[in-house]
Amino acid sequence: MKLFSILLIFCIALTANETKEKLEIIELKKELNDFYNKKELQYDKSKKDLEAIFTSIEKEKLAIKTLRDENLKILQDIKGTIESKTTKIYNKMKSKIAASIFEQMIKDGDIDLVFDIIIKLKEKNVTTLMKFLSPKSASMITKRLQEFKSNKG
Predict the structure, then answer these.
(1) Is the residue at 22 inside a domain?
(2) Which of 41, 110, 114, 127 is found 20 to 30 A from 25 (Cα to Cα)?
C-alpha cells in the first residue's frame, strides 16, 4: 500500500507538473498571439499610412506635371509671339540696317539668334539682306541654311 501511495503521489506530482507546464505554454502562446496581433495591427496601420503618402505624392506629381505643361505652353505662346513680332520687324526693316544689326550680333557670337530670325523672314528679304552682309557673315549664314535644309529634308 505504501508503494501504491508513493506511486500515486508520484503520478499526481507528475501530472501536476505537466499541467503547470501546459498552462505556462498556453499562457506563452497567448502572449505570443497578442504580440503578433498587435504587430499585425501596427503593420496594417503603417501600410495604410504609406499608401496614403504614396497617393498624395502621386497627386502632387500629377499636379506638378500639369502645371509644368501649362507653363511650357504659356512659354511657347510667349516665344511664338516674340518671334512673330521679331520677324515682322525685320521683314519691314530696310535690308541695309538689318544687315548691320546682324553683323554686330554675329560679332557678339549670336549667330544662332541671327539664323533663327533669318529662317523666319520672307525669302525676298533674306536675298536682299544677304547682299549687305560681309562675305564672312553671309558665308556662315549660307552654311547654316544648307545644314538646316539637309536636316529638315
Answers:
(1) no
(2) 41
